[in-house]
Amino acid sequence: MKRKLKLLLSLFLTFMKIGVVTFGGGYAMIPIIERETAQKHKWIQESDLINVVAISESTPGPIAICAATFIGYEVAGFFGAFFATVGVVLPSFVIIFVISLFLRQFEELKIIKYAFFGIRAGVLALIVKAVISMFKQSPKNIVAYIIMALSFVLVTFFSTNVLVIILSSAVVGLCATLIARKRGKTL
Amino acid sequence: MTYLLLFLEFLKIGAFTFGGGYAMIPFILETVEKNGWMTTQELVDFIAVSESTPGAFAVNISTYVGSEVAGFFGAVVSTLGLILPAFVLILIIARFYNKYKESVIVSGCLMGLKSTVVGLILATLVSISIEVFFANGFSVAVFSTKEFYLSLFVFLISVFLLLYKKLSPIIIIGLSAGLGIIFGYTGLITV
């Protein structure tokens, strides 16, 4: 019982920490989640992280919420999911609530603007790390490479709807796996 | 009644927005305008604020709109509404994940999804790079601004520390914020 409570507290605090430093959207938080949950606490395996991201992408809602709920559940069931999710949301909730009380002054704060000049470039580095980690954990076969390249090109140059890309990728992945299996091969 | 309306409207946003972040802006805009909660200009201003605070954009805007419309409890019910669909859905998926992850259907779909994740993040990397280095559009003039080289400096040093020195991403965020503040107060950048 005491160990379980300790685990829940640890989940809550870890995801709160993740919530505090998550700038620039979901992908930038992948290296942070990797560091905190896979490498430090060993709650999930590093090779499982890409599954978490893949599932978050194919369900509605921000990646942060999906990842916290999923990892929390894997580690400690329903209450694990609950505390991880509350933890990841709490920092931004408190900060935004306070800001909403004096929005205009916040927008004018010089120090915030300066800090964000740096953070924007730092976030870019985190996304580079995210691409590398996810590529290492991704499937290595010709179908996978084609899906990667096509998703990139369609989003970047043709502004294709992301939901369409996600759905088609799942279908293509499934068909390729079924065909390979029927021929008695693995992809 | 306001609480219920806030809860339901953000529940809807939480349930129907895939891809996260800015893909949901048009939907959010429609909702807040329809209810007279915010004007387009206020929303655009808030996007700038949300970029300078931690957390997912959707969560931030739900908290903000809720607070503006109905105070603290408005913020609570709006945020709750936004995260509830994802929370419930992921709980259900996580419940069955270990049992079915080896099955052909699930592993086949996951094969495709895991591959597209790589492409999608790469696409985000490109679009954010453009935002950081070429915020005012592509032109030769960009290469003669101090801002361009200072951004490049922060980016390269962050990549080096992250990939080769294996420093924690949290330290990277702190460090890049610190560098930005130093640049600002020494007059190197104007923002």
Account of the protein in words:
The complex is a heterodimer of chains A (187) and B (191). Chain A is mostly helical and 187 residues long. Chain A folds into two domains: 2-138, no CATH class; 139-187, no CATH class. Chain A contains eight helices and no strands. Chain A has helices spanning 2-21, 30-40, 49-57, 63-101, 103-108, 110-137, 142-158, 162-182. Chain A starts with a helix and ends in a 5-residue tail after the last helix. The mean pLDDT of chain A is 88. Helices cover 76% and strands 0% of the residues of chain B. Chain B has three domains: 2-99, no CATH class; 101-133; 134-191, no CATH class. In chain B, helix 1 packs across helix 4 and helix 6 (146-163) runs antiparallel to helix 7 (169-185). The mean pLDDT of chain B is 85. Chain B is built from seven helices and no strands. Chains A and B meet through helix 1, helix 2, helix 3, helix 4 and helix 5 of A and helix 1, helix 3, helix 4, helix 5 and helix 6 of B.
